[in-house]
Amino acid sequence: MTLANETTADPIRLSDYRKPAWTVATVELDVDLGIDASEIAARLTLHRDPAQASPLRLNGEGLELLSISVDGQPLAPADYRYDGSTLEIGAARDGSVLETRVRVRPAANTALEGLYLSGPRETGFLLTQCEAEGFRHITFFPDRPDVLARFTVTLKADRERFPVLLAGGNPAGAGELPDGRHWARFVDPHPKPSYLFALVAGRLENIERDYVTGDGRKLKLVIWSEANVIDRCHYALDALERSMRWDERTYGRHYDLDVFHVVATHDFNMGAMENKGLNIFNAKYLLADPDSSTDDEYRAVEAVVAHEYFHNWTGNRVTCRDWFQLSLKEGLTVFREQQFSAEMNSPSLKRIEDVSLLRRAQFPEDAGPLAHPVRPQEYREINNFYTATVYEKGSELVRMLAGRLGTSGFRRGMDLYFERHDGQAATIEDFLSALGDANDIDLTTYLAWYAQSGTPRLHAKGLYDAHKREYTLTLSQQTHATAGQPHKQPLPIPVKLSLFGYDGKALPLHLDGHAAETEKVVVVDQATQSFVFRNVASAPVPSLLRGFSAPVVLECDYTPAELALLVTHDIDGFNRWEAGQQLATLAFENLRSTGDTAACSAWCEALSALFHNPAIDDALLADLMTPPGEIEFADRQSEVDPAKIHAQRQALQHRLAQHLGATALLDRYQALAAHTSQALDADSQARRRLKRRVLELLALLDADQAHALAAHQYQNAPGMTDRLAALGVLVRDRAPQAAAALADFRQRYADNPLALDKWFSVQAQIPGEPALATVMALENDASFTLKNPNRARALLGAFASTNPSGFHRVDGQGYRLLAERLAQLDALNPQIAARLATAFNGWQRLEPIRREAARAALKELAQREGLSPNLSEIVANVLQ
Ligand code: ZN
């Protein structure tokens, strides 16, 4: 289809990759900082690839050029051409020194890319964001990740207004200047791509700690924030130290500068950024304190701190050749973070959390018009490719490779990867070769996973031959066509499996005469394959894809009794949960199609037994008692009615609550409520998690009683986890006590934007019809603004992406509201607008009335004048 203002520029293609014609050996930046205007003087020593003839072309986006010279000679206007995004210079030769001076305008930068102001102009601070292509908003440069240069950065500013001056690298001098100004210099000994450059300047406080690396380097860890939140940085500092020790222990990787800075900002497009030696964090993933952070948020802080730190090796020391290789650093770093978090917390809970996220965010992406391979073939706007597919599915691919090699084999492979590519910009092929070569295994078949989009469906069928005592498991795979990829290949799918007897015991597996373990991995790499297990005494129940051994959708015609057996007997927490999810799905689907209640009864009975089993972990029990979410249920349907799905899912939970009974739920709630410790240990977190779930189930049975308990819990909560859980129940149920609790919360956290974001989100998640009016009223709250990404996400993102029954109104008003706000947001911050627009993904599978309303809203948006390339690309793709 053609749109009035569709981007006509050709996409960038992986197959067009060429080595840079010009590289930069050293760069000296002299930055004179000011809120309204900053001046950047850059001195680049250039090298030319003798094999390529192209003139020097540098990126530079919307820069005000003040002066330019080559080898000391000022250039006349005829000597160069600048069209607002590319600077072309004829006179440069190999070894030339290019000097430019430009002016940029931080306070006017609402896109939060390049150099910008965080906070009010009187008190805020300046910072940069360069990944992926922000450096070109700061100075002229070959702004691509395969140009690695040595950076020397000198910052100059008014001392009173900007007492703290930071850049990546090691400190290399500081001093006074006339007129109350000062300077500070930083030298980074490690050549790096421009996207890892960062600076920060302003009034900031810090907390710090000495650290000695395993290889004997003494350094300082320093966390910086504005004064009013510095007390909330201690948890992150501890998490940083844990991450550093873990990477030393697990991968033998040590930190490599004299100082590691971390800075918190409330104005950030993403979660955080791994700039070399100067990580910058969205405050949401750095600050934590019991009064304003939930248990989940504490774990998220730990995870993101670790993720950014781990990038120092997987991303910074070894970086990406081009942005098509993004998953080389992101998938791998997510995987490393998942390993770390699993060790720091509960491995099965972490796996449950990650697989749920994959299903909620990545599976729908892979099933619709935004589907793309983990390594895309082409893109228009790179910022639109920081996706769940690149991150989360990318991590699953690394997990499969790590599983194939085993712990020591994977470590060997990683060692070789670092040895070969340290200081380089690498590709996914390089990664697979290193892992393979270190283990004498050819892993190139896994490249197909990086190239093919769509979630494979794995169909399993078992046949038992009592006479031969043989069990034949036939596994077939199929991947549906996705946009631009009509034909799919079979992929190597590792299926970890066990067989259970009807007594609930795992059977020894006799496959191809191998030794009889009870768990085995088979790899399905054809369209269909059969595996014959011998010596099987009676018909078994297969437990497949254990630990979620591959990112696929499993289709297996289990009976309810078979799933119930797995829920009851599987000793592995993740698999037990997974069987429960499958049983809940079967229950849900049978109830809505035929009204058959057998699966539902089996689910309720199995859960009820676990509910009364003191041996089971409280957090796991809470997760077991939570059926798949509305988005996951919708993902399995072809004509989605989100209101119905909400009602049906509530009905399913109501049956569970009824089965457990009000008395048992109340008793359990009270037993859990007797613990008032707000400690962060696993048991305390688990109790709070289960307490919330029990309260939610009780609210389905006896609303009045549950609301009274929730109101009491709200008032007496020792920390945010309990407070927000109670508020959530009151608000979602629109209980009479909700208004007072909301008013209290609003006032209590008036000066705490991260807590206030939760106040917006919890109300944006009211199910069904009332959500829209609530959202519109909240847009008028004095503290609402589209300018702050966290705030826009807290209200509009929570509404459009996490509240299907509220957003997908049959009258289409949810869609029109979002489209309108996207257009407004786009004028301020295109990256955030584009990201929020993905909430429309999946509209093609809505029932006809909603589908038409969504299409109309999207079309209207697509036709507006002057949309950014970011938003136009998402809207055009999602409309296809
Ligand atoms: Zn990352």
Automatic annotation (TrEMBL):
Q: Tell me the InterPro entries matching this sequence.
A: Aminopeptidase_N-like_N, Aminopeptidase_N-like_N_sf, PepN_Ig-like_sf, Peptidase_M1, Peptidase_M1_dom, Peptidase_M1_pepN, Peptidase_M1_pepN_C, Peptidase_M1_pepN_C_sf
- Identify the residues that the record assigns to the Peptidase M1 alanyl aminopeptidase Ig-like fold domain, covering every copy: 454-556
Catalysed reaction equations from the record: Release of an N-terminal amino acid, Xaa-|-Yaa- from a peptide, amide or arylamide. Xaa is preferably Ala, but may be most amino acids including Pro (slow action). When a terminal hydrophobic residue is followed by a prolyl residue, the two may be released as an intact Xaa-Pro dipeptide
Name a GO molecular-function annotation: aminopeptidase activity
Q: Which cofactor does it need?
A: Zn(2+)
Report whether Transmembrane shows up as a keyword of the record: no
- Reported EC number(s) for this entry are 3.4.11.2
Presence of keyword Thylakoid: no
- Its EC top class is hydrolase
Q: Which UniProt keywords apply?
A: Aminopeptidase, Hydrolase, Metal-binding, Metalloprotease, Protease, Zinc
- Peptidase M1 membrane alanine aminopeptidase domain location, by residue? 235-444
**Chain ranges of the Aminopeptidase N-like N-terminal domain:** 109-196
Instruction: Tell me where in this chain the Peptidase M1 alanyl aminopeptidase C-terminal domain is found.
Output: 561-879
The entry sums up its family as follows: Belongs to the peptidase M1 family.
What protein does this entry describe?
Aminopeptidase N
Natural source organism: Dyella mobilis
